[in-house]
Structure formats: structure tokens, C-alpha cells
Design brief:
- Helices cover about 70% and strands about 0% of the residues.
- The protein is mainly α.
- It has two domains: about 1-55, no CATH class; about 55-279, MetI-like fold.
- The protein starts with a helix and ends with a helix.
Length: about 280
């Protein structure tokens, strides 16, 4: 019986290991290709390059049109930082209102907010573009950042609402007895206790905004304002020679902030998702 259990555990481990290798193979291939000369990337299918060179990293960091990848990384961090700030402020305030305050049409508004999660982004793309174009916001970061300060990400509002509902209301009542209003109750009591949900929101906002290509491609055309995702596309030239090696090299570097951010806050992310689900 013990041997059968051991064999079963070993079989599951090998199956999971095989699945992990299949999932990670594209990343390993991209890393291998970034170390190969551009001329042999698609001629050698193996993961170990016959000739290793770091020229792709230096050439890729030089960027294009005289703009280095330092600028593109800076632009991405600006967009990501403002998006995180906007989501944390607006979504937490909206979540507190739905979870703690009583007002007219609360249930209907919450249902509409929750239903907007199922609304595809492409449905509202044209009206949004017309609106932002009339405001003169096209080719700026405002179309990407301003909606974040208006609590447009319903998923994070729902996540925070579920978390706030798990915080005892007795804490609010005790603060109210001490003379605190709604603003102080939110800022001094509720918001600090929402740390796991806040970190979860920040991580997902970071990943989704950093990897976003479609919205940034629609609204930004000035190369000086390009983010990393748009700059990576610049290495591909349909009319000339595509710079595959530098593109793979910069793609590897573009993954480092995501991995670092996730690893640093991994514990809080898991805690935030687990506690939200339980509550």
C-alpha cells in the first residue's frame, strides 16, 4: 500500500514537472534566442545556442530612432504608477461606499457595476476614442490613466467590497463614538486593514497595465511616448529586416519588473485572494 502511494505521488510529480516544462518552454526558447546571433535564431531549434553573444542586449537597449529603451521603461513606469495610484484611490472609495454606506439605488448601482465586468472592452472602444479625441487627449497618457481615477475597474471594486464586508462593523461604531466621520473611519480604520486587498489590486494593475498593448497602441503614436510593449513591436518591420534578436533580448528584460513585483508581494497576493474568497 505504501509503495503504491509512493508510485502515485512520483507519477503526479513527473506529470506536473512535464506540464511545467511545456509551459516554460517558450520562455526558455526566447531566452536562448536572445543570446544567439540574429542570423541563426530560426536555423537552430535547440535551446542551447551554438554561439553565445550579448550583442542583442546592447543593440536592443539602444532602441530605435535615437530613443533608447531607458525612455520606454520610464514611460511604462509612469503609466503603471499612475494606474496603480488611480485604482487604489478610486476603487477603495467606491468599495467602501458599497460595503458600508446606505444610499438610494445602492443595489441597482452595484448590480450595474458588477455587470460591467462582463462588458468587452472593444464594445466601448469607439465611443471612448471619440470622447478622448474631442478632449484632445489622444497621443497622451490621459486616456490610459484618467479612467483609473474614476473607478472603472469593477473587478477591483468587487474584490475590495468582499474584503471590507469581512471587517467587523464594531470597529466603525467605536470610531464613530470617538467622533470620527466617514472619511476618518475609511482612512484610519478600514483602509489600513485592507492591505492584502490593496496589494492584490496593485499587483494585478501592474501586470495588466505593463502588458497592455491594445489600448496603448490605439492612443499613443509618438515614439517618444511609447511604452515597452509598443517599443518591442518597433523591432518588427514588415517592409524590411526584422530585428528578432534585440526584440527577444528586450522582451526578457521587460519580464524582470513583473517577476520582481510578483515575488516581492507574493505572500500578500495569496493572502488577499484567499481571505477575500473566504469572506
Amino acid at each position: 500500500m505504501q509503495k503504491a502511494t509512493t508510485y502515485w505521488s512520483a507519477g503526479k510529480f513527473l506529470l506536473l514537472l512535464l506540464g511545467a516544462l511545456i509551459m516554460i518552454y517558450p520562455l526558455l526558447w526566447m531566452l536562448s534566442s536572445s543570446l544567439k546571433p540574429n542570423s541563426i535564431i530560426f536555423r537552430e531549434l535547440g535551446l542551447w545556442p551554438s554561439k553565445i553573444t550579448f550583442e542583442n542586449f546592447f543593440k536592443g537597449w539602444e532602441g530605435m530612432s535615437g530613443i533608447s529603451f531607458t525612455t520606454f521603461f520610464k514611460n511604462s513606469f509612469i503609466v503603471v504608477g499612475l494606474s496603480i495610484l488611480g485604482n487604489l484611490i478610486s476603487c477603495s472609495l467606491a468599495a467602501y461606499a458599497f460595503a458600508r454606506l446606505e444610499f438610494s439605488l445602492k443595489k441597482i448601482l452595484f448590480a450595474i457595476m458588477f455587470g460591467s465586468i462582463m462588458l468587452p472592452h472593444h464594445v466601448v472602444l469607439i465611443p471612448q476614442y471619440i470622447l478622448f479625441n474631442k478632449l484632445g487627449w489622444v497621443n497622451t497618457y490621459l486616456p490610459l490613466v484618467a479612467p483609473k481615477f474614476l473607478a472603472t475597474d469593477a473587478f477591483f471594486i468587487f474584490l475590495m467590497v468582499q474584503f471590507i464586508r469581512g471587517i467587523p462593523k464594531e470597529l466603525d461604531e467605536a470610531a464613530r463614538v470617538d467622533g470620527c466621520g466617514q472619511i476618518k473611519i475609511f482612512s484610519k480604520i478600514v483602509f489600513p486593514l485592507m492591505l492584502p486587498a490593496i496589494v492584490t489590486t496593485a499587483i494585478f494593475t501592474f501586470i495588466w497595465t505593463w502588458n497592455d498593448f491594445f489600448s496603448q497602441f490605439i492612443y499613443i503614436s509618438n515614439p517618444k511616448l511609447w511604452t515597452v510593449t509598443l517599443a518591442l513591436r518597433g523591432f518588427l518591420d514588415s517592409m524590411g529586416e526584422s530585428m528578432w534578436g534585440p526584440m527577444f533580448a528586450m522582451s526578457i528584460l521587460s519580464l524582470i519588473p513583473i517577476f520582481a513585483f510578483f515575488i516581492i508581494f507574493q505572500k500578500m497576493l495569496i493572502e488577499g485572494i484567499a481571505t477575500t474568497g473566504l469572506k
